[in-house]
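Please decode residue identities from the backbone states below.
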């Protein structure tokens, strides 16, 4: 993994709606993905994880509107691309070739009336028109081999594949043009635990083999602890903590991060009590004042209800950042 950035997000804001009643879905998001890194993005449903993915890829549907901020892709060699300013034609070329996304529901993402062969080769035909039909088929076979699916499945329709196979086809499609960045939006949520681990192991192997960078989005922080290099925790449309995966696991600084960690059983060592997090995530149209987490936080004190904490390095923790008045 390199310290060279491949994707930088600065001050990103997203609203749903443009009138006086607009809902602020993302607020002041600052995030950096380094080349060759796996960056985990964790948080409960409604925290803004998928909205961030769709904003970065310019796939945000109305009434979602990017109201501020910058998103830059850094090509090898130093060239920088302003993703939010790309014209439609350049954006179409940019997607899949430089940055691709694996969506949460493979059955909804794959076309049910087209074969796997058709859907893989359509991507190649659209972006690599110089390839002949035979070459596109050979590449489709190669892609299925990368994700552990035999070539005879090319003729299959999505409904003829298991959930795990469909998800691996989506990963193969995302890797078809060898992008630098792959964003995975909860790709294993609908799968059983055994299949989740199989896909994650395959993903780790592919990353080492092809040297791409990954943003992996999930509500299950236990998955991220296993294979991420760094983890960013989101709550209420903001990032509340960023640190290395091992640091988050050993010493979470934000009470919300600690609550997420104690919401799943330990993979190793003695058994521990699962405490979870009391209450429910806030509705974005009625956010609490100050720190959005303070109504659910057992460590809240006077400043928490009045001031929004800034995401900054704690005094004793260089290399990480936390948005909590306990560490101001």
């Amino acid at each position: 993994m390199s310290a060279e950035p491949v994707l930088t997000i600065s001050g990103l804001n997203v609203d749903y709606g443009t009138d006086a009643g607009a809902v602020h879905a993302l607020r002041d998001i600052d995030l950096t993905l380094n080349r060759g890194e796996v960056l985990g993005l964790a948080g409960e449903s409604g925290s803004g994880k998928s909205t961030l993915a769709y904003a970065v890829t310019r796939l945000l549907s109305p009434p979602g509107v990017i109201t501020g901020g910058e998103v830059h892709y850094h090509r090898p060699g130093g060239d920088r691309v302003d993703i939010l300013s790309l014209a439609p034609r350049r954006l179409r070329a940019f997607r899949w070739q430089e940055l691709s996304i694996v969506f949460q529901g493979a059955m909804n993402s794959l076309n049910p009336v087209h074969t796997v062969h058709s859907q893989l080769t359509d991507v190649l035909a659209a972006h690599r028109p110089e390839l002949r039909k035979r070459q596109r088929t050979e590449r489709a076979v190669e892609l299925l081999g990368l994700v552990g699916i035999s070539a005879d499945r090319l003729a299959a329709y999505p409904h003829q594949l298991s959930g795990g196979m469909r998800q691996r086809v989506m990963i193969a499609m995302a890797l078809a043009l060898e992008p630098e960045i792959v964003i995975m939006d909860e790709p294993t949520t609908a799968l059983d635990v055994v299949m989740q681990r199989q896909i994650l192991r395959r993903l780790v192997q592919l990353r080492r083999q092809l040297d791409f960078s990954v943003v992996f989005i999930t509500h299950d922080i236990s998955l991220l602890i296993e294979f991420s290099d760094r983890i960013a925790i989101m709550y209420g449309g903001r990032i509340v903590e960023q640190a290395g995966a091992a640091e988050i696991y050993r010493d979470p600084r934000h009470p919300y991060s600690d609550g997420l960690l104690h919401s799943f059983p330990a993979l190793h060592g003695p058994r521990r009590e699962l405490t979870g997090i009391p209450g429910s995530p806030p509705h974005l149209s009625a956010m609490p004042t100050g720190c959005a987490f303070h109504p659910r936080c057992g460590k809240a004190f006077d400043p928490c209800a009045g001031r929004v904490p800034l995401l900054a390095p704690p005094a004793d923790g260089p290399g990480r950042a936390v948005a909590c008045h306990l560490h101001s």
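Observation: The CA atoms of residues 233 and 239 lie 6 Å apart.
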